From TrEMBL:
The lineage of its organism: Bacteria, Bacillati, Actinomycetota, Actinomycetes, Micrococcales. Pathway: Purine metabolism; IMP biosynthesis via de novo pathway; 5-amino-1-(5-phospho-D-ribosyl)imidazole from N(2)-formyl-N(1)-(5-phospho-D-ribosyl)glycinamide: step 2/2. Residues 176-338 form the PurM-like C-terminal domain. The gene is purM. This is Phosphoribosylformylglycinamidine cyclo-ligase. The keyword Hydrolase does not apply. Its EC number is 6.3.3.1. Residues 60-164 form the PurM-like N-terminal domain. Transmembrane segments: none annotated. It comes from Actinotalea lenta.
Amino acid sequence: MSEPITYASAGVDTTAGDRAVELMKDAVRATHGPQVIGGVGGFAGLFDASELREYRRPLLATSTDGVGTKVAIAQALDVHDTIGHDLVGMVVDDIVVVGARPLVMTDYIACGHVEPDRIAAIVRGIAQACALTGTALVGGETAEHPGLLGADEYDVAGAATGVVEADALLGPHRVRAGDVVVAMASSGLHSNGYSLVRRVVEVSGWSLDRRLAWGPTLGAELLTPTRLYTRACLDLAAAVEVHAFSHVTGGGLAANLARVLPAGVLARVDRASWTVPPVFDLIRELGQVPWADLEQTLNLGVGMVAVLPPDSVDPALRLLADAGTSPWILGEVMATDGDDEGAVQGTKGVRGGAVRLAGDYRV
């Protein structure tokens, strides 16, 4: 061995890591209110939880997730400032489902090589989305993994914590036969099913810079950030009676809606109640993907669902429209007669109520 081995020669550039932190600090600080103690760079993020004393019985809600293989599209396009919106959407809006207000979030980025501008762009996107959802970004970690990841490869994950008053908790225990299911439109593919999507694009031979009939390039369409429903959902729950929310992520609409229904009820969803956005039909046509597989994998235009009593529906539609979520009535909840054949009964180990998709999609 002619030369000594150093950490830098092994592929880890700590100076680049420090530079990345300097580039992202202002964006992170912009998410901090007076509850955040100590600023950026400590071993742990600190949040003053003394306001929780005002709760009668505060329940902490936590969630963790990543963006999945959508990061491969960001890497192929060399566009990294939108992935953070996807991460926050996947993490924070899972907390909102139970009615919890998000408090803090942390992120984790693993990469083959720290390129400061790229890492800072990712974190700026996370911080911007945190600011939009009222969440303090209180810490994070960037880890360089040479030899495990390629120099331009990375993955992102995050975790968040929120709080909800125990008697305001939303979920299956509130849902009743007669409730109405209201949909909120997705912004596109969001952040699920990209292993299918990327495989379809690969087999089709389409390039990411190919212009689509409705305007954007294929790459821009695939990279469209996940819509953030946080404020719309929390404002809705504060204004009208809401029984449950369901975030439509991996597994599709039926499986995720079934997770928030109690045993003994069935939600009937009308496929013809909305027009499936063109990107989903494009994936179907390019890959000859069966509709059954699409609806078990992708959101098909429904990003979040609210389950409400009938009296709440009209004001909810107005409030959600004003919030920019383009809502519509998706279906209804009814008592099951025991005939659940063909219905979906949950995912992620949850078995409660059932969902039956009826009719044909409009494209």
